[in-house]
Amino acid sequence: MTTQVRLDALLELQSIDMQIAELAKRRDEIPPRRAEVVHDITALETEKRERGEAVERARLDRRGREGELETETGRRERYERQLNDVKTNVAYSALLTEIQGAKRRIGEIEEEILALMERREEHEKRLAEIASDLAGKRSAAAAELKSLTAEEADLEGRLVERRASREAVAAEVDDRFLQLYDRLRRGNRFPALVPLRGQACGACHGRLPPQIVREITHDGTLHPCEGCGVLVYAEPVSGGRPADAD
Ligand SMILES: [Zn+2]
Question: Which of 7, 41, 203, 242 has the smallest count of CB within 10 Å of its CB?
Fold first, then answer.
């Protein structure tokens, strides 16, 4: 494999592909980030609705209990008036039992009403918290969503620009190497171009035959590593020429 290769172009292509992968990864993270921002608001709105319904239920329950309280109070008063008219001790003590029963029931209803009022107060307290929390979260989310949209547009723009650059650079690369490189890249063998480390592949550290090492370093060409399949190249020395093993 001694075809003349535009190693610089191929390396630039790989560098652009790394940038594209990084930009695409950041772009793909935006929809889940957006969903997360909205998630808190949705949860608070659900809680607000549920507590609003609970307040209404407590209000209706209290109205029902107050009706019962009125009935029991009326009954107790009626028994108390009848006390004056009874003729026998048996009837008197029976009335007293009824009065006690009514009083006990009134006490129970009053407790239930108190509990309903407390429950309603708790819901209303939390509803006030939710209202202020929602206002804050909505305005924070608006800013955050706006910035996410701007970030997304920026990343898309940079991706378009990088893809155009990739196309221009790819046109300079020998077709055969381009295909080899793209096949490795798509097969998740990335980076596909790996520098020679001494006499060995920079990816798997497997030693390469001396003849191949000589071609890589002397001719500035690429060779697939027999161990891991990446394309091995010689890193240019400071002068820009490939390092020479001779
Ligand atoms: Zn290797």
Answer: 41
| Domain boundaries along the sequence of the chain | 23-170, 174-233
Provide the CATH topology of domain 23-170. Answer: Helix Hairpins (1.10.287)
Number of H helices, E strands in the chain: 5, 4
pTM for the model:
0.66
Q: What spacing in Å lies between the alpha carbon of 222 and ligand 1's midpoint?
A: 12
Cα 237 to middle of ligand 1, angstroms: 21
Interval between CA 234 and ligand 1 midpoint (Å): 14
Residues of the chain with pLDDT under 70: 1-4, 237-246
Distances (CA, A) of 223 to 1, 9, 75, 92: 7, 16, 103, 115
pLDDT tens for each residue of 54-75: 999 999 999 999 999 999 999 9
